[in-house]
User: Which sequence fits this backbone?
């Protein structure tokens, strides 16, 4: 179980000061355990703020979020976050990056080796275990990031535009691979993106936010069958959703 519930959440940066800025206004959401959720919305509507609060990086000024009924407060390895900029340690090899969390918690050498083997393979980096981050492409570094978060075995995976900087083909491959990993593990995923096609391809539910202040404008349920395949991107159902969301974001 790992259901996230957001309850009347409002966030004002600099509350009480002259420069107070209400970024999120009365957000209510229920993200079912094991579901894949995308958040879309124009730049500055508060997507990263919402995701960081789910990670526990800071508290909302009003309302709350819970994970399986427990109020989210502070960071916890049950909630793993992949940031937009890659957070790979340049001084560690691919394998050591992946097993960083377990090592920090005192996992034995055998456990570390097992975790490295499993997750390096899961994220498609077999053969690159001993490489240094500087020897990798942007997409490969992103894979290291994702492997490192997965190696902590979180219940919830929070991803902030993880593929934003990748070329179209790499992005499509990363999306399919992410879905494979997600199907195998069924973590609850919250995935922020600017890219409507990416959101539709990946998610069960797309939360469309409006800006200034950020509100939940619309929730789109995507009922395309799984496993999702690239040819679905050209189906009527897919394109109808894309047109509908596009029109919403334009306004
Ligand atoms: N620590 C902070 N202090 C003050 N204001 C902030 C802070 N972090 C974000 N903001 C403001 O909150 C608003 C929402 O920012 P946020 O980063 O959540 O937007 P976003 O939807 O993720 O945008 P983008 O799509 O460009 O990444 C912006 O106006 C931003 O300037
Ligand atoms: Mg952002």
Assistant:
């Amino acid at each position: 179980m790992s259901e996230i519930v957001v309850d009347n959440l409002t966030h004002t940066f600099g509350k009480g000061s002259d420069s107070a800025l209400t970024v999120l206004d009365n957000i209510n959401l229920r993200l079912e355990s094991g579901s894949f959720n995308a958040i879309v919305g124009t730049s500055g509507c508060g997507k990263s703020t919402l995701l960081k609060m789910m990670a526990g990086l800071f508290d909302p000024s009003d309302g709350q979020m819970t994970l399986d009924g427990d109020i989210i407060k502070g960071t916890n390895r049950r909630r793993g976050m992949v940031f937009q900029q890659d957070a790979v340690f340049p001084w560690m090899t691919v394998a050591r990056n992946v097993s960083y969390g377990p090592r920090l918690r005192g996992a034995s050498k055998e456990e570390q080796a097992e975790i490295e083997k499993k997750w390096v393979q899961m994220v498609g980096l077999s053969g690159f275990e001993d490489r240094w981050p500087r020897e990798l492409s942007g997409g490969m570094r992103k894979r290291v990031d994702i492997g490192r978060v997965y190696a902590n075995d979180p219940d919830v995976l929070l991803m902030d535009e993880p593929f934003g900087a990748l070329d179209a083909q790499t992005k499509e491959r990363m999306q399919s691979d992410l879905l494979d990993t997600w199907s195998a593990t069924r973590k609850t995923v919250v995935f922020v993106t600017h890219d409507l096609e990416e959101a539709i391809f990946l998610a069960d539910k797309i939360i469309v936010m409006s800006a200034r202040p950020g509100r939940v404008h619309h929730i789109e349920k995507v009922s395309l069958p799984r496993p999702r395949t690239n040819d679905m991107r050209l189906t009527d159902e897919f394109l109808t959703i894309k047109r509908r969301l596009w029109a919403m974001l334009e306004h």
Notes: Residues 13, 21, 23, 41, 43-49 surround adenosine-5'-triphosphate (ligand 1) (CB under 6 Å). The first strand starts at residue 4 and ends at 13. Residues 168-185 form the longest helix (18 residues). The two ends are 37 Å apart (CA to CA).
